Amino acid sequence: MKVAIIGGGLAGLACAHELEKHNIKPVVYERNSYIGDQFSHVSAILEIIGRPIKDHITYMRQEFGIDIKPLNTINNLTHLSPNKKTIIKGNLGYLLNRSKDSTAVAVQILQQLKNTEIRLNELGDYESLSKNYDHVVVATGNSSFADELGCWHIWLDTYVRGATIAGNFDPNTLTAWVNRDFCKRGYAYLTPFSEKKASLILITTDVTEKEIDHYWELFLYTENLKYPIIEEFKLSHRSGSVYPNKLGNIYLAGNAGGAIDPFLGFGQYNSIFTGVMAARSIVNGESYEDLIRPIIKRNLDMLQFRKAYDLVGNKGYDLLFSAIGMPGIKHLLYYTPINAPRLGAAIFKRALKLIGKQ
Ligand SMILES: Cc1cc2nc3c(=O)[nH]c(=O)nc-3n(C[C@H](O)[C@H](O)[C@H](O)COP(=O)(O)OP(=O)(O)OC[C@H]3O[C@@H](n4cnc5c(N)ncnc54)[C@H](O)[C@@H]3O)c2cc1C
Predict the structure, then answer these.
(1) Percent over 90 (pLDDT), the chain
(2) Domain contains 34
(3) Residue 333 located in a structural domain
(4) pLDDT tens-digit profile of 47-82?
(5) From ligand 1's centre to the CA of 11, what distance in Å?
(6) Residue 296 covered by a domain
(7) CATH number of the domain that 203 lies in?
(8) Using alpha carbons only, how large is the chain's radius of gyration in Å?
(9) Ligand 1, atom nearest to 125 Cα
């Protein structure tokens, strides 16, 4: 069976990994001259967001045979709203290297491939490839092909400004800021690579490329962040839903298939999951839509969070983080297996209906 995968990111490589298990030798078309991320940053996987899965790293190893070594565990989550600071401690998730280094997530998956042909510097085009291959998996990390195919529905447009900074950091702490003044309806966070280097990222919604620079400066100024900057980047980021995810012999996986969540912009696990499921659908003939339903459902839950979050202002953020910091609520949210995204989405859906915003 001939399978082409467009995009050598997380979804594309995870798909190739799964196909190899069934003796299929896929061809990955990657437009860049390398595998990995253009802009170095540290991403996160948070346990509270991923429930009912307790530990995504273990889960991916056991269920998909994909072995990813994180940079560190997250043992401290510090939330900062304009006038409140909430600290949560425990086994809260993982920090992962996203770059071109050998420890980067994409490079780690690449190293586990044995039988895949990787064509670097080759732009994949689904129209011509779908005529020459039995199946084509679109895993380009963006919405352009889904848009062309008429199955993309935009949820959120964001701009991301990020930097690698030097300083002294706790490698197990993730710090997150919410503040309407500089995040608008987004958020900012600091995730360390190590004790001496960290990633600082601001994600704002509905801004132009020019405006993001203003909000970035405001963020650094307001929070008095004076770290030396090693490297900087800026990019636009979209989340949306895709339906159908399979058209003829074309499968849309990862961000290209709407995997990224519309609340926090988490998409790593979802991209790996949809890549693996595209492969399973190709191999077993099972419905791709059915296989990826858990991710679609989860993203719809996250959309409820997004709608509720969009209505909250700085006072609301302070109240929210005060509440999260209260012992009973903190315990319930972080130290029991309660499915917080599911429960929160149901509560927000009801609340939004009551105030006529749904
Ligand atoms: C700054 C930033 C921070 C993030 N933080 C987090 C986080 O903390 N937690 C989390 O879970 N998620 C996070 N995400 C989201 C996560 O990185 C993505 O959801 C995930 O990488 C998507 O994987 P993918 O395989 O769909 O796309 P990608 O990993 O983007 O890979 C797509 C690949 O396709 C290639 N490509 C594109 N078009 C073509 C073409 N026509 N032909 C050939 N190749 C092509 C690209 O070069 C790229 O290599 C973050 C994203 C960004 C940008």
Answers:
(1) 79
(2) yes
(3) no
(4) 988 888 989 999 999 999 999 999 999 999 999 999
(5) 8
(6) yes
(7) 3.50.50.60
(8) 20
(9) 41
Q: Is the C-beta atom of 10 inside 6 A of ligand 1?
A: yes
Say if ligand 1 is within 6 A of residue 123 CB. yes
The encoded tokens of residue 291 equal 């296989």
Range of the domain at 287: 3-303
How many angstroms is it from 9 CA to the middle of ligand 1? 6
Is residue 87 in a domain? yes
Judge if the beta carbon of residue 165 lies within 6 A of ligand 1.
no
Pocket test for ligand 1, best of 43, 128, 187, 203 (most atoms within 8 A of CB): 43
pLDDT digits (tens, 9 = 90+) for 78-108: 999 999 999 999 999 999 999 999 999 999 9
Q: What is the pTM of this model?
A: 0.96
Total domains in the fold of the chain:
1
